[in-house]
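[stage:ingest] chain + small molecule (adenosine monophosphate)
[stage:ingest] validated
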Amino acid sequence: MNHANPHRRLVMPSSDKFHEECAVFGICGHREAANFTYLGLYALQHRGQEGAGIVSSDGRNFHAEKGTGLVADIFGKKDIRRLSGDKAIGHNRYSTAGESLLRNVQPLTVNFAFGNLAVAHNGNLTNAPMLRSELEAYGAIFQSDSDTEVIIHLMAHSRGDTLLDRAVEALSLVRGAYSLVMLTDHELIAARDPYGFRPLCLGKFGDAWIVASETCAFDIMEAEFVREIEPGEILVINDKGVTAHRPFTPPDAPAKCVFEYVYFARPDSRIFGDHAVYPVRKALGRQLAKEAHVPADVVIPVPDSGVPAAMGYAEGAGIPFDIGLTRNHYVGRTFIEPEQAIRHFGVKLKLNVVPGVLSGRRVVVVDDSLVRGTTSRKIIKMIRNAGAREVHLRISSPPTVSPCFYGIDTPTQKELIGSGHSIEEIRDYVTADSLRYLSLEGMLNAMPGRDDHYCHACFSEQYPIALTKAEEIQLGLFDADAHADTR
Ligand code: AMP
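[stage:predict] done
[stage:export] tokens:
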């Protein structure tokens, strides 16, 4: 079944502009600000493993430390001590190999009319290339490839009287997804786009205020979760406390990313309000059991991300849950590897079967999503080699049919096996005895709150913000040939 919208053919560019999975963290009012930022980034490592940075402010000077790789490998004790001051922001970055240059690692820092400024961004701006060309035409010189730098230039070009005015003006010009933290000499600013695509939470640790992508960053330091930063909200945090601003007209409905619940956020986090991720993932599995039951002896997850859904499935189906695959936690996610050849190798590095669980049995294997299909194919081969009699693959989300423009790494549409292939063709490719996905409706019913509050474009191709023709052309999405065909 091809879910692609017949009215619109997307031709994805070969660039990696959309690959912007990230984490942000900020703290204001603690003398160990950098140390806590380090802890926060460590807890948020799952949101990006290619690079990280911390910038602190002592009220006069900024101190910055950045590197490529994992948080624990980048920052040493000496680095953290050097990052003095009671305010700091940090960022974890995902990017593909060609882009993991140090100059792209955030926070980005500049010194402009209002003093020092550092910015860290989670999300993707769909009109960034267009704004960038316009700014360059006015003489702006960019130092990175990142969307985020566009925001900095827009703030620098603004005629606003205050930094907040300039931030509002800049953010009113960008389209797409942003959960941002900014640091000035004396303030921490947090902003979330009016659709609220990516999560952003406010917390408190003693007298200090904290902002983080997910609440797991608060838990690690035993900070208190205060509330979600609302879509369209800008918080200015300084020694006097927190001031909230809502300068933008809200859209008809927010568009919080459904995939944060399906896969991306940590299961022990609460995101998008006070909603825990783990029970949502379990509910997705229970719903899947309702929709796609098959007689079997055992339900096993693809660890780690498939575990809660598999538990929900086993519970819903009344079939015993067991661990049939173990994961080597020290390899890193295979998805990070950009080369197909490495990727195939990566699955074997990462996962292995548990002897004795699968032999002679009818196995239901549950995963949260199927993207290219290469992971499932390898896994099913392993399960069969371990002696399973039948292997039934169940996916706790619908087919991934479209790339994300708002900050989740999805490959080009051509590489998405769910786009342009029937379920039977996919089943055949992954060599399962049966394959069933969760329905779009079933997934949305399992989400907390009302379902029209979610962006599910990767599963439905219904993008909450229509791209303008100019944006499509700029991004290389506009297929002139297809356009000619339909005229
Ligand atoms: P694939 O081999 O491309 O079908 O990979 C599917 C696996 O990748 C599933 O086990 C998912 O948990 C995982 N996955 C899905 N989306 C992402 C993503 N954006 N980043 C990293 N891993 C992902």
